[in-house]
Amino acid sequence: MPLRARLRQDYPLLIMVAPAIVLLLLFVYVPLIGNVIAFMDYQPFISIQDSPWVGLANFQALFADPAFWNAVANTLEITLLQLVLFFPVPIALALLVHSLVRPWLRALTQSTYSPADTYANKLATVMARGKVPDLVVFPAAPVPARFPQLLDSLFTDLTEHLSGDAVTKYPNLANRPSNNWQACRVNGKIYGVPVSSSPFNMVLMTRPDLIERFGGDTAKIADKDDFLSLCTELTSRRANRYALGGATDASGVNLATDFVNGMFGVPHRWSHEGQKLTSMYETDQWLEALTYTKKLWDAGVFHPDSPSMQRAQAKTYYQNGTVLMYEDGIKSLSDSSIPKGIVVDAMAPIGAEGGRGISYQSPSMASFTAIRKSDKGRVEELLRVLDYLAAPYASEEWRNVNWGEEDVHFTTEPDNSLVPTDKGLAERAPSCLYALVNGPSALAVKKPAPTKDTLTRMHTYQEETDPTLLADPTVGFYSPTAASAGSATLTVVGAGTDYVLGRKSLDDVKAAVATWKSRVGDKMRSEYLQSLDG
Question: Of 82, 109, 159, 500, which one is least surrounded by beta carbons within 10 A?
Fold first, then answer.
């Protein structure tokens, strides 16, 4: 192509780079002209053009000066010392310290950290290069595009290592509950070791101390009518007190959503019966739950700021008594930041017409650690390392990994608590090992520990709720469409919220569901069924 034609074609690009080229010329290349002073008898108080030209005289004087060659020798000596001290010596020292501090787990690790909000992008960059580390942590959500193909091409199928009797080689991994492994199984293959989390997800937090003071009793709530009556009784606009508080997050507005959905038996995302897969949005139960939530809203039992309230604000209102119930994660029951004297509890699921409702079970896994494709010996070695890290709380392995060597890095008090020594404080460094795998869940809190009353309430709630847990049948199965269906799903959720708040009709909600089905829902169903039946 002729130069003129190329310039005409690319002139927008040339205009874009022109400012950068001008800056480069002005601040990088033009100053190079000043190097001419090396050939002049330059005086700072007169201009360059007025300084006399001396040619190579400055260089002759430099090479004739004994101090110059002494400086050259010193520079070469320092450079060689830097090569030795700044490269191999730190590695050797790190290996030496590592062997002294943790002789029971001889594994050299080089870790790459990334903040949670940028981890997905960092992970995508690493995967695109194709040169992946031995161990890679995949969050439970969101998962990368073409996830099964990615795992199949770069990571080891661990099914033969961790299924049946084979898993007995790794007793700590074998000790994990079966539900921890569900999300590690992608389209029928085990691709990782789980970092477990609680099977309990969102709970309806309550303030029993205040509820009882205002004449209520959550233990007597048997059905939807009882719950509405309780909320009405507890609410006093004059006293700025509301039975329920809502919260807004990435998934939409939460108006006690999980509790109400569980009350009406709404499926956990999908319902799988035989060859039929039904979305929660396609069910009558979901529409009934929306209609009931609208009834609660119209009764004025929600704090009026609920549709725009952040969860932190809802928590503040809960603690100061402005709202007496709101939904939050299970960890809120043992939140150490709750002021002393506040009594916290959670309401077990109830059925709309009586009996038990349902509670949505979390995947019981925060993430899983996959192993890069390697020879069998290397895979088994890495599994042994992960097995060691998965030891139960307070075991010898757990103490070794988290605390170091007894009487060197920590001491054990008469009450069995561990106290770091000065050496332990100096040598124990932050570690990412906890992110690779963890042991079984254990309640271990710093002093002051929760009161016996709090622990009893937590235990009672979990004991009552455990039989009602409902798992998502699509966990462990992949739908490419689902991975990018977030905006379409939020549209349906938003239509439901608008109906509750009186901005839209129920017909509008049904129309939104129909649009969702045609855009993504039917395709997601087909992809999930293909995986489920495969």
Answer: 82
